[in-house]
Write a structure and sequence with these properties.
A 4-stranded antiparallel beta sheet has the order 5-6-7-8, with no helix packed on it. Strands 9-10-11 form a 3-stranded antiparallel beta sheet, with no helix packed on it. A two-stranded antiparallel ribbon has the order 1-4. It has no helices and 11 strands. Strand 9 and strand 10 form a beta hairpin. The chain is mainly β. The chain starts with a strand and ends with a strand. The chain is about 0% helix and about 60% strand.
């Protein structure tokens, strides 16, 4: 049986009139079969989403509000090490960088 790796606990830091505050969220997202190397949070369609890049060579997209997996992006042959979200011509785009020396958009 494959071991499932869990995304790290997300810590949200907010600014208040008294300084910085830390809030620990109490949920986990499970799905990768190897270490999670990168995580990016972004807004899409009015929802807060996450993308996670893993040593299992996949990127997973999550709905943070419902804590559900939206989909798995495949295409890298080695670990996904970095993720970036950007806007292009009104669309939300995701770029992933991998140890296979490629960037996928």
């Amino acid at each position: 049986m494959k071991e499932l790796h869990v995304l790290p606990v997300v810590v949200v830091i907010t600014q208040s009139s008294y300084g910085m505050q830390r809030t620990r969220l109490s949920w986990e997202l499970q799905g990768h079969s190897s270490a999670v190397n990168s995580l990016v949070v972004f807004e899409h369609g009015g929802s807060t989403c996450l993308a996670s890049g893993s040593s299992d060579s996949t990127t997973k997209l999550w709905n943070a509000e419902h804590q559900t997996l939206l989909g798995t992006l495949q295409g890298h042959s080695r670990s996904v090490m970095s993720l970036a979200v950007f806007e292009h011509e009104g669309a939300t785009c995701l770029a992933s960088g991998s140890e296979d020396k490629t960037i996928k958009l």
